[in-house]
Amino acid sequence: MSHESPSRNGAFRPITPRRAVDEITAQIRERISSGEFRPGDRLPSQRDLAEQFQVSRNTVREAIASLEDIGLVTVTRGATGGAFVSLGTSSGIVTSLSDLFSIGVITPQNLREARAIVGKAAAELAAERATDLDIALLQDIVDRASAYAAKGDIAQRSEANFRFHIELARISGNPILEYLTDAVIHINRKIAARYEAPPNDIVIPFRRRLMTLIKQKRSAEAGMEMVNFLDSLANYYQTAPLLTDAARETHNSYREADKEET
Fold this sequence. Notes:
Elements: H1 20-33, H2 46-53, H3 57-69, E1 73-76, E2 82-85, H4 91-102, H5 108-129, H6 132-150, H7 154-171, H8 175-192, H9 200-215, H10 219-239, H11 245-261
Antiparallel strand pairs: 1-2
Helix pairs in contact: 1-3, 2-3, 4-8, 5-7, 5-8, 5-9, 5-10, 6-7, 6-9, 7-8, 7-11, 9-10
């Protein structure tokens, strides 16, 4: 990360106590949007910000936490720590869309449509842009999923499949698709955790067909393969049996283990 950026246009403007956190957040966001603070730059210390804004450090701390929540800054601890302009994160989008889904503003049908649109675009671009290294990474995930399936470890197979979609979006080279995929997969994980996972004959053949299309750079066909798969998946979940509490706990424990591996 780079050194702390100077305040090129002078100190931040003092503010009144009312709505202080919102005003601090707005001013810092303005500096980030203008390019004065760029990705990787360290913001002034909490002490310096408190002096410039003429507020308490607690107020500054709350504003920084708000910026961290929406993914604009990353806070690290220790002697070399501080608040840094984010290099890119989907956390704000994930949180916002998850909350909207939880309260019913986003419906399952909305989610299904969005996942099909985003998944199709990601598959098409990945087929166009995947490097040999990208293909090797995707193939490794597919092989792991197949190995888990052969052992009857459906929870780990499912988590590997989610990882496949996330990596596919990254390979697309479009950060918007990547962030939206992260958000949609986050919600889908929660939904999938309630049900028995789809059988191998829905999931494994799709992965193999899609890998062939990506290797051959058949972009349009890769996109349609993704759409057809997601349709099959959505149809499965319409009648899928619910998991028992014990099975759900096992599924979630595998999820956490897989996160640690990756």
